[in-house]
Amino acid sequence: MDAAIQGNSDIISVLSDQEENDHFASLRYAGMIQHVLMPDPEVIKGYFNDFFVLFLPRDIVSGDFYYTFCNRQIMCIAIGDCTGHGVPGALMSILGISFLNEIMKSGINLKSNRILNLMREKVMKALHQTGTGAGTKDSIDISLCIIDCKSGKLQFSGANRPLIMSRNGELTEIKPDKMTIGVAPLKETPFSISYIDTLPGDMFYLYSDGFEDQFGEKTNKKFKHKQFRNLITSVQDLPLPKQKEHFESAFMEWKGNTQQIDDVLVFGFKL
C-alpha cells in the first residue's frame, strides 16, 4: 500500500512539473507575441537617429507597452501603462496597441488629444464601461507625442503620464490630464493638448510609473519622482545607449534583492 501511495505521489509530481513547464512555455510564447506587436528597434531607427527603450517587465508578459507610427507627415511616439501586470496587463496592452493602430491608420485629423479621446471611447465600448459601476475597471495610462515631420512642432497629450523635456541642460515637465483611458468619470471631459516648438538636440522622456514606484532594498522606500528627475539630469548629456545603461543600473542597484513590484518602461528620444 505504501509503495502504491508513493507511486501515485511520483506520478502527481511529474504531472505538476509538466503542467508548470507548459504554463511557462505558454507565457513565453505570449511574451514573444507581445514583443512582435511592439515596434522593432530597427524600425524605430528609421524615425530617430538617437533613442533608447528600457523595457523591464515584472513577469514574462507586461502591462506596459511602447508604440511608434510614422507616415510622410507625422511621427507618433507613445508609452502605455495598463491596469495590472502579467497576463491581465498584457491583454490590456494588446488592446491598446490595436486601438492605436486603428486610429493612426484611419486618416482622421491626427491631433494628440483627439487620439486619446477616440482611444478612450474604444476602450470603454470594448470593456462595456458606462461609469455606472457595471463593467470592468481596467484602464490605460498613456503619454503620447505627435511630431510634425516638416515643422518639428510637437504635440503632447497625456492620461496620467507626463512628458519630460531636456533642453540645454534644463528639465521641463509637461503635465498630463488627471484622467485615464477607460472607466468613464462622472463628468467626462476631453483631453488637453500641449504644443512645443522643438529645437535640434531636444531630448524627451516618456515613462511608466514602475521605476518611481519601486521599493529599494536598503531604504524600503520608493524611488519617487524627484529622484527620477535627478537621474535624468545626471545622464542627459550622455549618448543615449549610455543613458539606457545608467537607467538600468540605477534601477537594479536601487531594487537590490527586493522583488520588482511593477513593469518598468522608459522611452527616451532626441530630435
Describe the protein.
With 271 residues, the protein is α+β, with helices and mostly antiparallel strands. The protein folds into 2 domains: 1-37; 39-270, Phosphatase 2c, domain 1 (4-Layer Sandwich). The protein has helices at residues 2-37, 41-44, 86-104, 112-126, 225-235, 240-255; strands at residues 50-56, 64-70, 74-82, 140-148, 153-159, 163-167, 170-174, 194-197, 203-207, 264-270. Strands 1-10-9-6-7 form a 5-stranded antiparallel β-sheet, covered by helices on one side. Strand 2 (64-70) and strand 3 (74-82) form a beta hairpin. Helix 3 (86-104) packs across helix 4.
Q: Bin the helical content.
A: 25-40%
Gyration radius (Cα, Å) is 21 Å
User: What is the name of the CATH topology of the largest domain?
Assistant: Phosphatase 2c, domain 1
Percent of sequence in beta strands: 15-25%
Tell me the domain tally: 2
Based on secondary structure, the structural category is alpha+beta
Distance between the termini: 74 Å
**Helical stretch tally:** 6
Order of helices and strands: HHEEEHHEEEEEEHHE
Q: Which regions are unreliable across 5 or more consecutive residues at pLDDT < 50?
A: none
Main sheet attributes: strand count, strand direction, barrel closure: 5 strands, antiparallel
Q: Judging by the overall fold, what is the CATH architecture of the largest domain?
A: 4-Layer Sandwich
* Strand order in the largest sheet: 1-10-9-6-7
Shape: globular
How many strand segments?
A: 10
Mean pLDDT: 87
CATH class designation of the largest domain: Alpha Beta
Question: Can you identify the CATH superfamily of the largest domain?
Answer: PPM-type phosphatase domain
